[in-house]
Q: What sequence folds into this?
């Protein structure tokens, strides 16, 4: 299996960042519904599922940042960057 090029990884990161924004909106909506209806197992399950997808996508973005930089940015730093510097990351990729 061939290694992905930097450009391919950047394109994948761009796609994942867009997906992450969409998943965050869905998770926020699901959370609002669950907060309004805390006894509802349905809303609890929908929130749990939405958050799990968001978390998974965030981790994919973090792993791509580490790969793109050939490990010069470690996972801990990449996670911090995704939380505090996401707009800058989006502008770069």
A:
């Amino acid at each position: 299996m061939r290694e992905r090029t930097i450009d391919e990884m950047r394109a994948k990161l761009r796609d994942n960042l867009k997906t992450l924004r969409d998943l965050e909106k869905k998770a926020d909506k699901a959370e609002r519904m669950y907060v309004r209806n805390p006894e509802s197992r349905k809303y609890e399950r929908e929130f749990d599922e939405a958050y799990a997808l968001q978390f998974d996508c965030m981790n994919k973005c973090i792993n791509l940042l580490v790969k793109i930089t050939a490990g010069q940015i470690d996972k801990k730093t990449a996670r911090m960057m995704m939380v505090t510097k996401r707009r800058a990351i989006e502008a770069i990729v």
